[in-house]
Amino acid sequence: MSELLTVKDVAIILKVAEDTVVRRFSKVKGVIDLGTGETRHKRRYRVLRIPKSVVEAHLAKLGGATVTIEIPERAERRRKSPGWEDRAIRNLAKAGLQNGVTLEDKATYRRIAERARLLTSVPENRWGEIEWFEEEE
């Protein structure tokens, strides 16, 4: 079976709003609706899981050619715990090592920390829209 994507994942891939994804995919064969039905007193609640193959077929139909999509990397979700800072430090160090940042490159780590701090004032669903510009010194 194909990997299941959330509405948010598909919205990021297609660069559309989550409501658009729900409208386009809610009745497509193969999409799983985990939400609740509508009752007389309660509005319907939609939770869709969309197979990667369904999204690829949708794009192929629109574009007229075979399409393979790459799943966006999901941020690791964690609840606040006593050791969260240690894990965050290790994750940053690991990312730095994987990207060739050296011990002498303190400015890179400072820039990352400052930008991460700034992101806390922006809704997480808007982070992808932010462009960073390098300051001239």
Structure description:
The structure is a single chain. It is built from 5 helices and 3 strands. Helix 1 crosses helix 2. With 137 residues, it is mainly alpha-helical. The chain has a 3-stranded antiparallel sheet. The chain has 2 domains: 60 residues, no CATH class; 46 residues, no CATH class. The relative contact order is 0.11. Helices cover 42% and strands 6% of the residues.
User: Fraction of residues in helices?
Assistant: 40-55%
What class do helices, strands and sheet pairing give? mainly alpha
- One letter per element, helices H and strands E, the order comes to EHHEEHHH
- Number of discrete domains: 2
Shape: extended
Identify the strand order in the major beta sheet. Answer: 1-3-2
| Average pLDDT | 84
Low-confidence residue ranges: none
Number of strands: 3
- Terminal CA distance: 52 Å
The number of helical runs is: 5
Share of β-strand residues: 5-15%
Major beta sheet summary: 3 strands, antiparallel
Cα gyration radius (Å):
20 Å
Task: Write a brief structural summary.
The chain is mainly α and 137 residues long. The protein has five helices and three strands. It has two domains: 4-63, no CATH class; 84-129, no CATH class.
Key terms:
137 residues, mainly alpha, 2 domains, 3-stranded antiparallel β-sheet, 5 helices, extended
Write the SSE topology:
Blueprint: E1 4-5, H1 7-14, H2 18-25, E2 32-33, E3 48-51, H3 52-63, H4 84-98, H5 106-119
Antiparallel strand pairs: 1-3, 2-3
